[in-house]
Amino acid sequence: MPQIEAFHGLRYDLGHVGVLSDLVAPPYDVIDGQMQDELYEKHPQNVVRLILNRVQTSDDQEDNRYTRAAHLLKTWRRDGVLQTEPQPAVYVYHQQFQHGASTLIRRGFMVRVRLERFGEGTIFPHEETHAAAKADRLQLISACRANLSQIFGLYPDPANHVQDVLEQSIIGVQPIEASDYLNVVHRLWPISDISVITALAAQISSKPMFIADGHHRYETACNYRDQLAHDSDLPSNHPANFVLAMCVGMSDPGMVVLPTHRLFRGIEPVDSQQLVTALAGCFETRLLGQGPQQAANVWKEIEQENQQTNLGFYAAADQQWVLASLTDDGQKQMELAAADHCTPWKNLGVSLLHRLVVEKLLGYRELPKPMYVHGIEEVERFLTDGDDTGRDATGQQGTGGNFPLACLVMPASIDHIQSVCEYGERMPAKSTYFYPKLLSGLVINPLH
Fold it and tell me: What is the pLDDT of residue 201?
């Protein structure tokens, strides 16, 4: 594990601004235009104004969403809206949530983690990143000089010894608490006891870290550090050498990875017979029902078999569901189509979908980005009603329209993530969805 440090975090002074639930927000990349408006209305100091300030038609080089966020951060610090932790601390962070019929708690802790370029140390990515998103986040971090949101890192710890070091120190201590729009309860405990922090660092020092969420923010933090180092000598203890991270053990009982289903745009309508014909030779296929309302039944069968090699397709032209199961010949074709990747990567459902089915068998190379959805009820709703999302949080107009093809795909597991990372590779984008999302606004890491 890279070096971890306690730090003087910035936190809302609740005596000054009120209820924490009104001040926090999900990560910027799950906030659409409607949610952005709701968060703006919720409280004048909601953290959305920092992590995803509104685009305005008058924006220019001097006055834009990034400079406004920086001005607000400075003003909130000056006015006491945000206060600096008096002692360097690590922050125990619990998330209590419903998953099916169960109530789960995911436990972790937030610290500063020393940055390492991927491939040069013991921090590993698991998903691809996009240049536009990194450019956006670099403008924000350069303006605000702070980590406004944490990355999400996983580390192996089968017996959860690392987290147990911290759990003993919060027994009987009242947490700082907030609830989000999904009714997830978030609890935070600042820990400044030097002996506890030292024991934590010793426990985790030999472990690798796998980035679960926040790849763009991690790479942006590296770019920001390099940018500063290019302009002047950067002392090793400079805070820009670190990034704010939430660390969670891979074996934590609250670890949940949800699927990310695909609703495709920009292709000609396809019916089930055309789909079956295209998949023949690589997949065995079965028709499983007609109409978007059958999505739950199709997903139930895929979940029960629990195989990455089973894909559930919806052909909108005749509203027919097709269950496709990879054959031995299909596996050989995947070996050829993805010869540049390791075996764990080739065995992922999302890899089979995009590399073998979409690119090779259907022949689509330059498709628009699909809509990614996680709940089966969302799949049914969008297939029934189409996409009428309006503008997104960046101010751009939604694409609208219907979806001629959809696919239900199993999520990658924690073991899959570790296997692919250890080969030095990355999964296709949106291979995983860790639930619940971490909140922004619980603690901010200043970088100056």
Answer: 93
